[in-house]
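User: Protein folding is very new to me. Would you mind checking the protein record under this note? It all follows right here:
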Amino acid sequence: MSLLFVLNGMRIIAQPGSVKANGISIAYESFGSKNDPAVILIMGTGDTMLNWPVEFCEKLAAHGLRIIRFDNRDIGLSSKLDSLGQPDWTAIAPHIGKCDNAPLPYTLLDMVKDVTGLMDALHINNAHIAGVSMGGAIAQLMAINYPQRVISLTSISATSGNPARDPGDEKAMAVMMTPAPVTDDPDTVVNYLVQVYKALGSTDDLKTLQERALNHFNRTWLPEAVNRQAAAVIVGDYCDRRADLAGIKIPALVIQGDADPLVSPEAGKEVADAIPGSELCIITGMGHDLSVEFIDEIADCIIKHINSIK
């Protein structure tokens, strides 16, 4: 069933669906006309597609774009890969920062193939690709490995994979490293997620954060599944991509908050410096979070970027 939204007098339909892609099931939601240029939004570690705010998707769609947000593997309503087991952290640790074949349940490149598979299933030959945090790394890898599928790249709150980068704020990292509660109690999960959002630098009020956390819980709550994503990131995002980024010939935009406690402004700028001709959009006060306060500014940066290459 479609959800109907109205923005500036324009009717926008959000159409949910699910497709088989790269051997798994991927849940998605599409805003706007199938005849408009597609923008694929890739979310970060452990977050469902709902963390791309609906207002953000609506605004982009209102500017003549087809917006597709989706649940990454092991998240939300997409396939859970329990058959792959839990990461063997002892075996994985020696491989961090070495760009070799670590014993992972799956890699960031597997998640790149999820995106191209989703596009194939939706009959989209190429698209504007935008990702945040882990999703930004996946978007970069897609531009590197499948440039023919990428019209433009938008990397948000993501690093270049440089293992020597600033490790991030200690207090924020401590919260992020706190094990997620394995429970069916919504209050426990909501309280945990609200603390995570705050540590990431969210500027949203408590009610908004609680609603967001509850939406996440109601969609799915399986910390064991998120562990597999975390393992892919810990290895894949500490493999230096700068040389590969230097070979990108696709129009690129880097969006970075100057108050990001996980990806420093310098780390974000390093991505922009690595990609020839890329544009850098620094957002004052933005942390490692798509807070409501910054949605318009983020959308405006992306719209300007896409319009500049039409």
